[in-house]
Specification:
127 residues; mainly beta; Virus Head Decoration Protein, Chain: A; five-stranded mixed barrel; five-stranded antiparallel β-sheet; 0% helix; 33% strand; globular
């Protein structure tokens, strides 16, 4: 499992789908109380970043508010960018006016790069 800085900022949820290909992607807490990535939209309030590679119905380790963790970028972004989740992939993208912010990246990078992010899905206002 990936390292999450600040161990009080992670939780375990049941995976709502096969997430083995979605490590370091942003996801939501579904109505069925499961963690999902493929149904994430930037206009839906995300809960955190997946830190392991669970298959369906197994435990998903999720970095939540206050954690510093890895996240996969879905676009070229600069350090300090406030990010949201790309629709259907959960990759970090630049936040737009109608998107819910999930956190702030600490390094710049390109699509597919892994960078550190401060997870803060609750305390950042909608852009």
């Amino acid at each position: 499992m990936a390292e999450v800085q600040n161990s009080n900022s992670s939780m375990t949820l049941k995976a709502g789908e096969d997430l083995s290909a979605y490590q370091f992607r942003i996801g939501i807490l579904s109505a069925a109380d499961t963690f999902r990535v493929t149904t994430v939209f930037p206009t839906v309030d995300a809960i955190g970043v997946l830190q392991n590679k669970p298959e369906s119905a197994t435990e998903a380790s999720v970095a939540i508010g206050g954690a510093i963790c890895k996240v996969e970028l879905g676009a070229t972004l600069s350090a300090g960018a406030i990010v949201s989740a790309a629709e259907g992939t959960g990759k970090a993208i630049a936040v737009a006016q109608t998107y819910y912010p999930v956190g702030k990246i600490l390094q710049g990078g390109d699509d597919g790069d892994l960078v550190d992010m401060i997870v803060n899905p609750i305390h950042l206002p909608k852009a």
